[in-house]
């Protein structure tokens, strides 16, 4: 029997997950069809009920449903209950388990692609939305010494810092960035198609020369903040590795098989360049 998995979101037409998950299943010889399941909010509960049948391995969940699925599934694993967001659902004999691989995917990208270990380091997250939440909890688990959180709406940064607890603190990024080993754009600022595609969410000019600048946005590849950091000669990491690693961790939760990360990267990059040519 061909088994099924897919991505639940609204919209999902531009998701890269079908390209790189399908490539991974094919590479591992697994008979799984990974589909786009565009699901408006009113159809979410029905979509989740379907996942309980044996033909489904599980699903990825993306905007805007990462929180809304929580009451619809049976158990929360990893940090997903504390993050309050699920991006991966696994069907185990009709019981649905939720996980969040966004933050762990971010940390895996830092370690494997940037060759940078957050343990003992001081990291500033700019943004306090869903993406920043997953990253903050994962950095705490990875033993970062300081997780400073700055946000346009300061109350949201304070709430996230309180939820994570020490070593997370809420800060005002305007107070200077020279004390950080790594600064991460966790906002949509600089993303193609956003309200502020040319803008940067923080100024790289005061960063130390050895600082790492990360953007979770992956379209365009050279976001304004990464371009500014590269112009200064700073080390950078774009958003595609986080996307691929969160998917690799989902793949491993569904299959118990080690994810073919190189195959997934190649498929993601190909899909991204084809999409660029099409638009
Ligand atoms: P996601 O799940 O992708 O993180 P989100 O929960 O909507 O999405 O969070 C978006 C983040 O980008 C928030 O930190 C948001 O700041 P606010 O909490 O003040 O809304 C930030 N953001 C979005 N547009 C921004 C802009 N133009 N300038 C600064 N921050 C912005």
Average of pLDDT? 96
- What's the order of the H and E elements? EHEHEEHEEHEHEHEEEHEHH
- CATH H-tier superfamily of the largest domain: Leucine Dehydrogenase, chain A, domain 1
Record the strand order, biggest sheet.
2-1-3-5-6-4
SSE blueprint:
Blueprint: E1 3-9, H1 17-27, E2 32-38, H2 44-50, E3 56-61, E4 75-76, H3 80-83, E5 88-92, E6 95-99, H4 102-112, E7 122-126, H5 130-141, E8 146-150, H6 154-164, E9 168-170, E10 182-185, E11 212-215, H7 224-231, E12 235-237, H8 240-255, H9 261-278
The structure holds 2'-monophosphoadenosine-5'-diphosphate.
Descriptive notes:
With 279 residues, the protein is of the alpha/beta class. The chain folds into 2 domains: 136 residues, Leucine Dehydrogenase, chain A, domain 1 (Rossmann fold, 3-Layer(aba) Sandwich), CATH 3.40.50; 135 residues, NAD(P)-binding Rossmann-like Domain (Rossmann fold, 3-Layer(aba) Sandwich), CATH 3.40.50.720. The protein has a 6-stranded mixed β-sheet, sandwiched between helices. The protein has a 6-stranded parallel β-sheet with strand order 9-8-7-10-11-12, with helices on both faces. Strand 1, helix 1 and strand 2 form a beta-alpha-beta unit. Helix 8 packs across helix 9. It is globular. The chain starts with a strand and ends with a helix. The structure holds 2'-monophosphoadenosine-5'-diphosphate. The site of 2'-monophosphoadenosine-5'-diphosphate has 16 residues, from helix 5.
């Amino acid at each position: 029997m061909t088994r099924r998995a897919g991505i639940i979101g609204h919209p999902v037409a531009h998701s890269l997950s079908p390209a790189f998950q399908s490539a991974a299943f094919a590479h591992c010889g697994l008979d799984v069809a990974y589909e786009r399941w565009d699901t408006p909010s009113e159809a979410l509960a029905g979509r989740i009920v379907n996942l309980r049948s044996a033909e489904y391995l599980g699903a990825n969940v993306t905007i805007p449903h990462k929180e809304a699925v929580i009451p619809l599934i049976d158990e929360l694993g990893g940090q997903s209950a504390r993050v309050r967001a699920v991006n991966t659902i696994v069907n185990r004999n009709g019981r649905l388990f939720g996980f969040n691989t966004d933050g762990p995917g971010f940390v895996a990208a830092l370690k494997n692609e940037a060759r940078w270990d957050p343990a003992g380091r001081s990291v500033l997250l700019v943004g306090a939305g869903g993406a920043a939440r997953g990253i903050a909890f994962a950095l705490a688990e990875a033993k970062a010494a300081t997780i400073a959180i700055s946000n346009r709406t300061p109350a949201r940064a304070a709430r996230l810092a309180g939820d994570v607890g020490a070593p997370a603190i809420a800060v005002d990024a305007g107070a200077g960035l020279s004390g950080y080993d790594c600064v991460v754009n966790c906002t949509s600022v600089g993303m193609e198609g956003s309200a502020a595609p040319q803008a940067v969410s923080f100024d790289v000019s005061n960063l130390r020369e050895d600082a790492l600048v990360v953007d979770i946005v992956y379209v365009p590849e050279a976001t304004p903040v990464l371009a500014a950091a590269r112009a200064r000669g700073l080390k950078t990491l774009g958003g595609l590795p986080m996307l691929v690693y969160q998917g690799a961790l989902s793949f491993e939760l569904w299959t118990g098989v080690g994810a073919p990360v190189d195959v997934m990267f190649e498929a993601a990059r190909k899909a991204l360049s084809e999409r660029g040519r099409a638009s």
